[in-house]
Structure formats: C-alpha cells, structure tokens
Design a protein that fits this description.
Blueprint (H helix, E strand, L loop, with lengths): L2 H20 L12 H13 L10 H14 L23 H22 L2 H12 L2 H7 L5 H19 L3 H19 L6 H22 L3 H5 L5 H33 L29 H19 L1 H6 L5 H13 L25 E8 L20 E7 L3 H29 L10 H17 L15 H19 L4 H26 L2 E2 L1 H7 L7
Antiparallel strand pairs: 1-2, 2-3
Helix pairs in contact: 1-4, 1-5, 2-3, 4-5, 4-6, 4-7, 5-17, 6-18, 7-8, 7-9, 8-12, 9-16, 15-16, 15-17, 15-18, 16-17, 17-18
Length: about 525
Amino acid sequence: MNKKWFRIGMVSVFILSLALRFWGLERFNTLVFDEVYFAKFGNNYLTHTPFFNAHPPLSQYMIGIGIWIGSHIPFWHDTVNGLTGSLRSPWTYRWLNALTGSFIPVVVAAIAYQLSYRRTFAILAGLFTACDGIFLVESRYALSNIYIVIFGLLGHWFLLLALDNQNRRRSFWLVFAGIGFGASVGTKWNGLWFLSGAYLIWIAAWVIHLIHSFPNSKLFFRSPSLEEAGGRRQEAGDRSQVVTERLALSEAEGSRSEAGVSTYSPSSLSSPLSTSSQTPLQNLTQLNIFQMLFYLGIIPAFIYSIIWIPHLQLDKTYGFIAVHQQILKFHLHLGGNSPNVHPYCAAWYKWPLMTRPMAYYYQTAESISEPLPVMGPPLPAGAGQVIYDVHAMGNPFLWWFGVAAMLFLVGMLVSQAVIPWVKEKRFSMPATLSVDTWIALYLVINYAANLLPWVKVTRCVFIYHYMCAVVFVFLAIAWFVDRCLCSYYQQLRALGVTITFIILAAFIFWMPIYLGLPLSPNGYKLRMWFNSWI
C-alpha cells in the first residue's frame, strides 16, 4: 500500500466512524442508560449545582463543555427536554462524545503503525475498531468510557512516538504521554491499567536486555554442545532475516520519512543486529527508572490532581482525600456479580466471549409511523410490532476472532521459549527479537494489564468495563489478518480476506441494534443468538 492509498484509507475510516456516530444522534429524546447520571452531572457544572460523583470528574467536564458549546450553536435543537435539569437538546449532551469516539479508530491505527510501520496493519486496525458495536454505542450517548479509552490510547501512542525520537523531542512526547495517562485515570480509576501496561512492557524490555547483557549468558542460556552448529545456523538465518526485513521495511521507510519521524539509514540494515532499530519498543531500555517515574509517574499524578480542582471548588462537602474515601466506599458497597444485584452483571471471564451484553434502551411501538417512544414500560406482548433496541454489545465475530488471535500471539511467544528449550535442553533467547515478537509482547501484556485486575473485583461489573482491554484484541486480529494478507500462501491470503469480510458483514447485520433502528420482533430475535444476550 503506497502513501496515497494509506491516506485515503485513514480518511475513509475516520469519515465512516464520524458518520455512524452522528447519524440520528438526537433520535431518542430522553436519557439513555447512564446518561441519567453523566448528562446531569455535566449540566450541573454549568448550573453550579453541587453533587457527589462516584468517579473522577473529567468525563463530566467534557460533557458539560459539549453542552455549553452545543447550546450556542443555532442548529439541531428541534427536540428538547428538561431531563438534565435544564432545557437541552439531546444533541447538545451527545455531540462531543460522538466526535471524541470518532477519533478512537484513528488512534488505534496510529498505534498499529507506530508499532510496525506497516500501513496495511494500521488500516485494518482502524477499520476493525470502527466496525465494533460497543464503541459505537458508547460514543453516541453522554457516557464516560470512551474518554478512558481514548486518553489511555493517546498515552500509549505518545509513548511510542517518544521512543522513536531523541533528546528534546523525546521529552516532549513523554510529557504528553504522562498527560494522556493522567487524563485516563481522571475519567475512571480503571484508566490506571493503561499506565500499568506501559510499565509492564518497559519492565519486560529491561528483563530481555539484562538477559542478553549477562556476562555468562551463553553458558546459562545456550547449550555448549550446540554452540558451533548454532553459530552457523544463526549466521545463515541472519543473512536471510536481513533480506526479509529489507523487503518488509522498504515501504515503511518512505512513509516514516514523510511523517516527520526518525528514519533508518540504509547502513542500519547491513548488520544482523539491525533488527534492534526496527521498532520503537526496542528503545524502551533507553528510558531509565527516573524518567519513567517522572514522565509516567509524577506527571500523571499531577494531571489527575488538578483535574479535581473545579469539582472540589463546586462541591466543598469533601476534600481531596475524603472524596476518594467516599468513592471507594461507594464501589465496595455495590454488591457482588449476581443478577440479584443487577440483571446485566457480568464477571470478567464472561467478557471475552461476550456472553452477557447489555440493553441500554428498549422500547416498543405499534408502527414505525408512531412517534419514537421516550420512557415507560414496553407495550404488552403481541401489541408491540416495532422494537427499538440499543444494545451495548461488540461485533461478535470481531471479538471472537480477536480472542483467537490473542491466544495465537500467546502461543507464539510461548513457543519461542519452549521450542529451543526442548531442542537444546537449555533456556534460549535470540540475540534480538523480531518486530512481530515485540508486537506480540506489547499486545499480550497490555491486554492482560487491562483485563486481569478485574479478576479480584467482587462488585457488580458490566461488559463495558472490557473496553480498555478489547482494543488490544482489535489490534491482535488486525495483525493476524495483515500477516495472512502478506503471506506467500494463497490459502492464508484467502483466510485474511474471509475474516475481514465476515467482520464487516457482521457489523452490518447487527448495526440496527447499535443504532437503535426499528426492528420487527422476528428481526430482533434473529440478532439475539443466545438467551443471555437479551
């Protein structure tokens, strides 16, 4: 893919994402799901009404800013309601979320490109993210989860940009990375897992570096009896790898140079050790502990602290420490993961296979010509011939294929450690890791960092808490499809095309329950494949 088509692809992904999020944005003239909290809280900042919030306040600031700007735009005020505490159009408290959510696929694509400098990988990652249902639903209403995700992803993207630069430019991007991570935590506390993922991949890079730097690493990690034969195999393999990497990176060099980031000189590919310059992740060991603590410790903590200032000025009931104690108390008393607490409670292990999505809005009408229902119980069974359902569920095949791709990456990493051990009876690690190995490490570590902390959480949790982790699943399936499409084997290329087609077709099939389009009872049942989805 050349630069021109890459740009066209990125713009197309953004326009698709933008159009889906803004189309019919004010159709439901009511408060949908947790808009009963967040839209009201955003309006409370404008009316100077004190209130207690069970989360950090950044997303409510953003919604409040959107309401203020939207109220001064002389359009899209055909429908209004007073449910937020003031007479507002639904468009005013939703449009900024829709705009913010439209950028998430672009940021995911930017991360994919920065990890590999492969344009096809980036386009696929952005396209798959744009074709997910739960991100579409969360972006179309005044909810908070898209802000956790986009700020956390921006933190990761800025970190990768920092690793690809030196000196002042590196410090510049590291500052922005710290701001992004701090803003993610300032939206909800689970935004902290994005930051923990950055620390874990940094620790992993240092562990690999220290293993290679150990004075007797060859004695401890390689079989002496196979050293000579291994050396010959390594030399031949290195020559083959250099040729392969030249072909793979020829496209990337031109695009990176145009993008204004550091480029690799031709001489960097003349040595087998040139693979150390092929991905920013291998530059993680250039960051010492003091840089990490300052840029990704002190700066996020500072940003998180100042985010609270406007809220604490409005509501002086609790100070900074006391308000955190109250928030913690609130979450500890929410109850366990049981339908008795909430019908849509879903423990963490139910998220990857999407066994319990949520209905954010469900109303029935006798015909399409009737005004859209606002609130109230659905019509009696048999009377409602039209169903309006907004379902917070992902693209099923995107999630299922993505989990399979993530397991494939885990298997790839394990095999690289186990196979040499079986053959040589010693733990062995290659002198340099390939670009795809670094990508696998990055995706697996960050997926685990955003999912595994929920294992110990006993309160009622929901499928939307998986959003921070599932973006790395999207990257995993995009990587797998990209490798299939680049394969010499026709069967693998066909597999990549088939997976992409199924994901796109599934998105179109389930789109009515993402956008809340009118469905017949049969059309609704056709999309509810399992009873646990209802």
